[in-house]
Structures are given as structure tokens and as C-alpha cells.
Design goal:
By secondary structure, the protein is mainly alpha-helical. The protein is elongated and about 55 Å long. GO terms for molecular function: DNA-binding transcription factor activity; transcription cis-regulatory region binding.
């Protein structure tokens, strides 16, 4: 039913996210999501089509909230180098404590969700790349659009790989990625 001022879709996504973290994908049933949100099972199917559609919607919404954080971090910096360092550090540190992302990456309750961040991650990767590039171009309009768009896609994929398989401390990775970005687009380094 949702709550006053809160649509049914949001209530369903909240319920599904909690259940995915708590039980894992395999153990979550559409009926469980419906019950947690106070609606019928048919309402869940009408809104998302199937369980995969529901899981994908949860991950996409989660990614949008994360990108809001990236926007805020990028806005706090005047130069591209420090903005990239801050955004990558934020991403790596936030991901380390992210219960939903851990559930997806570790395959708790089954690894069925892992493709949402790997082989079927196009919606997330494209949305992240586009949004970050658009933000950077608004903030630094003199940058070459084609070069920035190209490097942003590579940086999102590189950062994602460090989320999945961390190898160095976040700040070290962030400086490495910032050097790549600034050298590629011809911006000054820190």
C-alpha cells in the first residue's frame, strides 16, 4: 500500500532490498516482498514483472542513491584531480560497508545477482558513466567531451573491479585513477 507520501514502488523496493540482504536472492519470494510492503503478490508482479526485474530495480535504485553521493563529493572540489580522488575513495569506502552490494558480490543465498554488477551490468555502468561525465562537464566545461566520456567509462569499470577485488588501500587506488583521468584529458594533476 505504501505510506502517505510514499509510493507503492518505493515500499516494494525497500522491502525487497531488506529481504535480499537478510536472506539472499534464492530465498526471497515475491509473496515475502508483498507481505513486507503490505500489498498483494500480484501488485509486485504488476510493478516488476518477475523476481529478476524486482532485483534489477533494487540494484538500479541503489546505484542512483550512490551516484547522488558521488555528485555531492565531486561538487566539493574545484580541481578535477582532487574530485576524482574523492569520488573514487568515496566509492571504494562506501562499497566496503554496503550490505546490499556485499550480498550481490558474495552471492549469499546464491550467486544469481552477481550478473547485475558484472556480465549484465550495462544499465548500471552506462548510468554511472553518463551521470559522472555530465557532472564533470558542467563543473569543468573546458574539458573535451569525447575524451571525458571515454575515460569515465573506463574509470567506472576500473573502480568496479577494485570494489570486487580490492588490492590496495582506497586512497592509493584513487590517486592512481585520478592520474589516469587527468593525463587522459590533459588536466593538471593535484
Amino acid at each position: 500500500m505504501g505510506t502517505p507520501g510514499r509510493p507503492v514502488r518505493e515500499s516494494l523496493l525497500d522491502a525487497a532490498a531488506d529481504l535480499l540482504v537478510e536472506r539472499g536472492y534464492r530465498a526471497v519470494r515475491m509473496q515475502d516482498v508483498a507481505a513486507a510492503a503490505g500489498v498483494s503478490r500480484q501488485t509486485v508482479y504488476n510493478e516488476f514483472g518477475d523476481k529478476w526485474g524486482l532485483a534489477q530495480a533494487v540494484v538500479i535504485r541503489h546505484n542512483e542513491h550512490y551516484l547522488d553521493g558521488v555528485d555531492a563529493v565531486l561538487s566539493d572540489h574545484d580541481d578535477l584531480y582532487s574530485a576524482v580522488v574523492a569520488a573514487v575513495t568515496y566509492t571504494l569506502e562506501a562499497s566496503a560497508d554496503d550490505r546490499l552490494k556485499k550480498a550481490v558480490l558474495t552471492g549469499e543465498g546464491g550467486d544469481e545477482l552477481l550478473p547485475l554488477l558484472t556480465t549484465r551490468a550495462e544499465p548500471l555502468l552506462f548510468a554511472a558513466s553518463d551521470r559522472i561525465a555530465d557532472h564533470a562537464l558542467r563543473h569543468w566545461p573546458d574539458l573535451d567531451r569525447a575524451a571525458l566520456t571515454e575515460i569515465t567509462g573506463a574509470v567506472v569499470r576500473l573502480t568496479t573491479s577494485h570494489i570486487m577485488l580490492p588490492s590496495e588501500p582506497p586512497e592509493q587506488v584513487a590517486h592512481f585513477i585520478a592520474r589516469i583521468v587527468t593525463r587522459y584529458v590533459g588536466a593538471p594533476e593535484g
